[in-house]
Amino acid sequence: MSVKDQKLNRRAMLLGAVLLVGGAAALTRFSRSSTAKSARGPAFSADQFALLEQVTEVIIPVTDTPGAIGAGVPVFIRDLLLNWGSEQSRAEIVQVLEAIEQRTWSKHGSGFLELPDSQRLELMRAYDEQSVTGHDPAYRKFKQLVLLGYYHSEIGATQELRFELVPGAWRSCLPLNEVGRASAFWT
Amino acid sequence: MDFDAIVVGSGISGGWVAKELCERGLRTLMIERGRHVNHRKDYLDFSPPWELPNRGLVPEDEIREHYPIQGTSYAFNEGTKQFWVKDSEHPYSTPEDRAFHWIRGYHLGGRSLTWARQTYRFSDIDFSANKKDGHGVDWPIRYADISPWYDRVERFAGISGASEGLEQLPDGQFLQPMELNCAERAFKERLEKEHPTRRVTIGRCANLSEPTEEHIKLGRGPCQLRSVCDRGCGYGAYFSTLSSTLPAAQRTGNLTVITDTIVESLDYDHAKRRVSGVRVIDSKTKQRRSYQARVVFVNGSTIPTAQILLASRSEYFPDGLANRSGAVGRYLMDHVQGVGATGHMPGFLDRYYYGRRPTGIYIPRYANVTEDNSAQFVRGYGFQGKGERPSWDRGIDQIGVGVDLKQGLRDPGPWQMVLFGFTEMLPRADNRVTLHPSRKDQWGIPLVHIDCTHGENDLKLAAQAKQDALDMLTAAGCENVRSLFPHVSPPGSTVHEMGTARMGRDPETSVLNAHNQAHDVPNLFITDGACMASSGCANPSLTYMALSARAANHAADRLASGEL
User: Fold this and answer.
1) For residue B53, which residues of chain A lie inside 8 Å, CB to CB?
2) Domains of chain B
């Protein structure tokens, strides 16, 4: 077993953890033909999907490259939860969105979507810090899907980071500024 | 006779046997239980992450239902899923409290497509270990017997690596080594200074750093540093049956390959002391038939090879073919895994690398070689590892969102070193593959029952390897050094199964002689992992290749001289 593979194994383990039991989410107009083969309904209600879009965009905003929405992260997560996620994973991701919404209401007396950008960022910063520090498994999975969705999208991999499908050579020790940015690949 | 030779299995060892026999002019039938795989055409190696439907992830419910064991493998993902069996379709049994992870793929090429390509020679320290400390039976060969065959298979397979002049890890016929990166060079320098008895070298691997003319003639090209090897390589840049031995065998015109054909048992003709037929089942139609040949090589991999022998009962071999010794199915070994550590290597923040090198570093065995641990345990362990700068995935466990997170992940993270121990496992009679007394698979073949545990010495080695990994990272200046695993993995997890039809000098205690020929059945040869009399601590595939080439040529010689 090579070390690169051990690294990949880590990814498999991260995404393999299943921790909560939950029910199916409600059916909504976000049902698509490509998801029709799934016996289950879509992962998110319309409201939840709108929230997902804005939360992921706060985590990865537009800079000189597109943000989460521009890179298709919300759609990726929606499809992934249909095609990949167990009911438990779906419940966990919905649970994270609900927790964010609840937190917004208790702190600001309104929903996340009604907040101005600066307050969204402030709220997500605090929630992220608390969840990462507290090792919240549901939030960990959520953040992982957001980052996977972004950095393994074509935009995230090739515009924000660096990705060569066929590197063609191994240069073992170069000045960082010659190589440029981090490789989007896991290794 | 339908054929001169039959080879059961198309993995690393079966491919080698077929190539050598065909090149010796023998009409050879290769029987593969799984489906046909087209080299290049069936691989997913040109799909970037965003073109895989689930970005590399296999659906969670599918893993739970169909791949609960295979899904534990590091190499199991959306890009490689086609190369692993469905556990739901290919069950085996274990005692309730003793897990064994049997990781496998049923298709043309077998695990030669998904192997980690690490290629190390065994040394005389390995071949004489059983005799020296009394565990297991003495190997009937020594390094000098196999050394020219290592040369032969290395040249053909194409092994990149660095010569080190070590007694415990003999050098070979290497292509240009891949270089250590900046952090690994510092790690090597510091570790070797702190521990002059230990060595750090680049991982020797079956990737063509520079193809020779022989490789190019077979349609193989240089490694492109993509590191998607286990999806199959369209460049044919790593050794697999499909990239290498199969085309070599096919160009002789002597090879016939049949797939979707399960070998159930072998017929034995006592009057002639020979295997007289190979009984097969068409996996799709379930029709049974048999094939005949002058010589039969069983290369089904360690566990199925034992299964086939055990299922081949006759009046003269009531406990299974070639099993007068009772050793068939016993002495199952793996390498102990679930031992490793990681640490942060300070500095070198202005340095990086380009390309995805398909190998890591290797620390050859030093325990009971250059250092004396004989008061604690026998045998030893080696380490694979690497230094790297983590990419975006480190953001998952870091506090931070927004522009700060995004900007921070644009640069690679600080250097991280990681080491994984590979520990030798002693041959013990109780570690055993048997046929289940009642349960059968969908073809009516008795399931294998695998009962295997780590022994006291195995676990002592693993515990020391775990401590050494921590100590070596610390000695090399790493910070925040920590163990990666709470406990060792179940046997089988390293996917180095060995030992169920061992070689030996005495027919009363072993199954195969010095040429991998069954002591009691001269036209039966076994050159997969089943033949191993001890496990060493190095990845074993290169040794299977060398033994396969050697045994195949021995058989061809004996056929030519009329002795077989």
Assistant:
1) 83
2) 3-177+205-333+428-453+497-560 (3.50.50.60)
Q: Which two tokens stand for residue B472?
A: 């070596």
Decide if B29 contacts B559 (C-beta within 8 A). no
d(CA B544, CA B552): 12
Please name the residue that has the structure tokens 């056929």: B559
Pairing of strands B3-8, B293-298: parallel
Q: Residue B126: what residue type?
A: D
What are the structural domain ranges in chain A?
3-179
- Is the four-CA dihedral B110, B449, B328, B265 of positive or negative sign? negative
Flag whether residue B59 sits within 8 Å of chain A, measured between CB atoms.
yes
CB pairs under 8 A between A and B: 221
By C-alpha distance, which of B343, B357, B353, B422 is closest to B202? B357
pLDDT digits (tens, 9 = 90+) for A57-103: 999 999 999 999 999 999 999 999 999 999 999 999 999 999 999 99
Burial of B164 by CB count in 10 Å (0-12 exposed, 13-18 middle, 19+ buried)?
middle
- Model ipTM over 0.90: yes
- Structure-block tokens of residue B517: 């020929």
Say if CB A159 and CB A65 are below 8 A apart: yes
User: Average of pLDDT values for B245-270?
Assistant: 98
So what's the pLDDT on residue A40? 60
Closest chain A CA to residue B493? A1
- Tokens for B89, please give them: 């379709």
Half-sphere exposure of B198 (CA within 13 A, CB side): 26
